[in-house]
Specification:
Largest sheet: 13 strands, antiparallel
Structural class: mainly beta
Number of strands: 18
Strand content: over 45%
Shape: globular
Number of helices: 1
Helix content: 10-25%
Length: 237
């Protein structure tokens, strides 16, 4: 009888530890929920438009402001949840002297030459946690390689260092809203004070954009995100 009791207690202990471990593992992997259901697999189409102007500031060297930012992509199920997006910035000007300094991308999404004030980038993104592991963020990294976006700057009064094609490299993180609930319209908030580190699982990962490899770039602005087919969604931890 004593052996049975000991074995029972041991089994209960093992099950309890397993439950805590499983709960802990789930809690450290943020995920998407769509229309009340955990998005375990598959993808859902989303689109986004800006709320207010987007800015890309490279130290004191140059500031680019765009009046429009739109994106299309998918959110994908799993732990952690992921997504991919193609982002179009338009109405972009160099704020120091917009009449004599122009900016655009080398090419559009389909490979054609971009018009004045058009900037394009493709990104793969993943739900991560902030440095205190208490808030869900979305980490944007280049679709391939290290270049996040290319900027072609031209004009008589542009800072000489910026003229030509400039590669902005690295990654950028946005705050996700809603978090822990669902809504018909979500938000991706790129704060004016850049997020410097995130947690991928248990690993702390540095985040940041640079140009010329040394000058910090800060992307700021807010996007309103909706499901293409309608419905509600949100990020959970």
């Amino acid at each position: 009888m004593q052996r049975i009791r000991i074995a029972t207690v041991a089994l209960v202990a093992v099950l309890a530890v397993s439950a805590v471990a499983a709960s802990s593992a789930f809690a450290t992997e943020p995920y998407w929920k769509v229309n009340g259901t955990y998005l375990e697999s598959g993808s859902v189409n989303v689109s986004a438009t800006n709320s207010g102007n987007f800015k890309l500031k490279a130290g004191s060297l140059i500031t680019i402001e765009c009046t429009s930012a739109t994106s299309k992509g998918v959110i994908t199920g799993g732990l952690p949840g992921t997504d991919n997006s193609k982002i179009t910035f338009s109405g972009c000007t160099v704020t120091q002297d917009p009449t004599t300094c122009e900016v655009k991308s080398p090419k559009k999404e389909n490979g054609e030459t971009a018009a004045k004030g058009e900037i394009y980038t493709e990104a793969k993104t993943e739900l991560v946690l902030n440095s205190t592991q208490t808030k869900v963020l979305d980490l944007f990294t280049p679709e391939s390689g290290t270049t996040f976006v290319e900027l072609v700057v031209s004009g008589t009064k542009c800072p000489s260092l910026t003229k030509g094609t400039n590669k902005v490299e690295g990654s950028v993180a946005a705050e996700v809203s809603p978090e822990g609930s669902e809504a018909a319209t979500g938000k991706l908030i790129f704060p004016t004070t850049a997020i410097k580190t995130v947690f991928l699982g248990s690993t702390e990962t540095p985040v940041g954009l640079t140009v010329f490899g040394i000058i910090e770039c800060i992307q700021s602005g807010t996007e309103n995100v909706t499901l293409t087919g309608g419905g509600e969604f949100g990020a959970y931890l």
